[in-house]
Amino acid sequence: NARHERMHRSLKASMSHDNIFTTLAEQQAWFIRWREEFNNERPHEAHNGKTPGSCWTPSARQWDGKVPEVSYPEGSTLRLVGIKGDICLGGRLFVSAALRGEYVRFVEVDDGLDVILFDRLILAYYDRSERRIIRID
């Protein structure tokens, strides 16, 4: 979203002001200070002059870190997502590291073209003739 993109532009602009770090610890300390200022000290136009920290509230929903179990129709073409987020289809193809250890489903949608699904979520398409994944923008 636009606010997120604006934050990245601000971070990039701040980083490019002759900041030279000799260690990762120095860089991390700088980033922690920058984040504190960005979120809790500097007012933002997008928040009507408030700081992001004053507008943020934690979600009431808790996530246990477990992906819900997905069941696919019998006879579905499934592929197991590997530890690096890839699947094997005559070669290794990256799908998503977030789905490691999960199955994704392939459904033919056109001659030589499959949709790759996790549950009902479309992840990408697979061009069988080119043996490549087509990302969704």
Automatic annotation (TrEMBL):
Secreted listed as a keyword: no
Q: Where is the signal peptide, in residue numbers?
A: none
UniProt KW Transmembrane keyword: no
Q: Which organism is it from?
A: Pantoea cypripedii
Which key words are in the record?
Plasmid
Q: Which is a GO BP term held by this UniProt record?
A: DNA integration
Q: Which domain of life is it from?
A: Bacteria
Domain (Integrase catalytic) spans 1-52
Q: What is this protein called?
A: Transposase
